Amino acid sequence: MSFINLPIFAAMLENDLILRAARGEKTERTPVWLMRQAGRILPEYRAVRNSLSGFKELVETPQLAAEVTIQPVDILGVDAAIIFSDILVIPEAMGLTYEMVEKKGPHFPKTVESKHDIERLKVADPADLGYVYEALRITKKELDGRVPLIGFAGAPWTIFSYMIEGGGSKTFSKARRMLYSDPAMAEHLLNMITDSTIAYLKEQVKAGADMLQIFDSWAGVLPPAHYSKFSLKYISKICDAITEVPITVFAKGAWWALPEMADINCRTVGLDWNMDPKEARRVLPNKTLQGNLDPCALYGSNEVIKAETKKMLASFGDHPHIANLGHGVYPDTDPNKVKYFIEMVKELSPGT
Ligand SMILES: Cc1c2[nH]c(c1CCC(=O)O)Cc1[nH]c(c(CCC(=O)O)c1C)Cc1[nH]c(c(CCC(=O)O)c1C)Cc1[nH]c(c(C)c1CCC(=O)O)C2
Q1: Binding positions for substrate (predicted)?
Q2: pTM score, two decimals?
């Protein structure tokens, strides 16, 4: 037997900067990746995507999902890969099928309006999401230890919002209304999503995810008290259940919740560009921070990108930091600007 097959060697990574930063350890430079780096901006992604019937076919074809997961590592030089999938595979595995409408986004033909609708749903059987684990296994093998692999899921509140609204919304008033009109029903559904997500994330870790991120994209629509009660509580349950790998919690728009995040069992807290890194460092002394360049900075010239990246890095000081944008990279961003941002983080970060 060759020694290379021993698990300890298989687990070794050439570049583990992001994992060390997530653990709060000192790193020789700040690691960098971008939310939504897989898909969205690369012509190489469009080429794979256009050879198929649509987005869902790509998500459900592990070999191709692995290919587009690795593209940003090869092309952009990021310090981590994030598995190509979507947060909406969880509602689908619970019984609500989604469609991805070209240029419009996700649409659920059936939504949750009543107790009766919830009774027809189930806690997702992790076995129904085998295509995601297969994509993780292939990616892990093909990455061959170059960089860590990030798994992910939506936060229960964000998934709940899609299941009630049936798609994106300006106000999320249907989802928010249920928190007042039938909080017990809302809690029941949030618990089902939470249980589904815990089992799903545990399987992602078994399949090779080195770290996990929870995306609470619609955190910012809730009043603070509701955010604690109907979102953070469930995120906290997920973080308590998963002890195997470091977790990042990204709650877009919920700046008021940063102090409360100190008590959650996650290692890293993601900041959007409205959040002040100095304030976050003060209230979260024991967490690694991720973020938070305004994605629009990448529409600027290289000089602007360099100056903004420098300012952003300085605002995190010597606090453990994973550089990123404050939300996903916008679809019409020039990949060369993304590359330049990544180069600038590598060049300018002093290390912590
Ligand atoms: C809210 C949300 C969704 N999906 C996701 C979130 C949370 C992150 C965030 O707030 O941006 C998460 C997500 N979606 C996708 C990934 C892959 C990995 C990555 O690159 O980060 C991740 C991590 C692929 C995708 N998911 C989607 C695409 C584009 C679809 C296509 O190629 O046709 C990709 C690459 C589609 C999608 N999926 C969703 C929407 C609103 C859309 C429409 C348009 C868009 O946001 O790009 C739901």
Answers
A1: 36-40, 86, 162, 217, 327
A2: 0.95
